[in-house]
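Note to self: keep these together.
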Amino acid sequence: MDKRIRVGAVSYLNTKPLLFGVTKDATLIAQIELIEDYPARIAEMLLKNEIDVGLIPIAVLTKMKESYIVTDFCIGAEGEVASVCLFSERPMEEITHVLLDYQSRTSVQLAKVLLKHYWKKEVIFIDGGIDFRNQIIGTTAGVVIGDRALEQRKISPYIYDLAGCWKNMTGLPFVFAAWIANKKLDNDFLIAFNKANAYGIEHIDEVLENLHFPVYDLHTYYTTNISYQLTSEKRKGLQQFLSLLNTV
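Structure:
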């Protein structure tokens, strides 16, 4: 029987620093089965008990019967995150429809929260398909996340950074995803896993050596846009976001 711990992680550039130390640690990697996919899929796998712990969108916490936030790290932002944005050809006041990224849960819910409480605007929401970015035209905007959002920054004239807008509205940082387990895990494993997460955050230049992404400066992305430490302020932002979910 395979006793390895099933670990799900998002297959975006923003997770590379967190996974860097994990994949370098031969002892740790032997203990896990690492699965990478887009955020909504990893969340679904955790809910179905197909994995034991995942770097998942925090909105999924409301659907879990049993949940544990593990490690001192997350995918968060103290201000503008760059890779989770509402993109449009027109300014906010002209937007009538918003396409929702199928790869996301938290980001889509954050957009809804901001549209209601920050912009105080009613729009028609449309579930985006595989090629939904092609439909961001005219008064139809779109929520795009991850690597594709960094690409979209070169295309759309209007960019509304959702983490930046959240900070403006609440004064708090935002947590998009955290390492969440659906059961209690071995403490020795959690200590080693936390340490491995820390390694990449502390060695960003090493992480960057084998990455090539000409669309956006990854050093800026990893050191300025994304904030990886799961601080007490981020936990406050997380709780405030969860409390607003039932309003949209």
